[in-house]
Description:
Layout: H1 4-35, H2 49-68, H3 73-94, H4 101-121
Helix pairs in contact: 1-2, 1-3, 1-4, 2-3, 3-4
Amino acid sequence: xxxxxxxxxxxxxxxxxxxxxxxxxxxxxxxxxxxxxxxxxxxxxxxxxxxxxxxxxxxxxxxxxxxxxxxxxxxxxxxxxxxxxxxxxxxxxxxxxxxxxxxxxxxxxxxxxxxxxxxxxx
Length: 122
């Protein structure tokens, strides 16, 4: 018979992974939204506004849904809004300082994932 505590630990690990996975679509949507701006510095020509906005909405909704698998609905919505605000602000503030898009995006993703990890500690 499987130990009850072992099952609880496995469920907690799965929930932590789901929160990390929930952050990624919101971040990708915010990145596409930033790339649709004419002031972005990563690519030569900006992507279309429709594609940027639709990817932002799709990423936000899917991230909110993934958060709601572990948290109550209001908490999932609040976590999604906080991650979205962090993504948009970090993309906008870090873009002029890093000409290498891969490094800046990695830095933003690492900061957001550490936010997800800190939410379990606090």
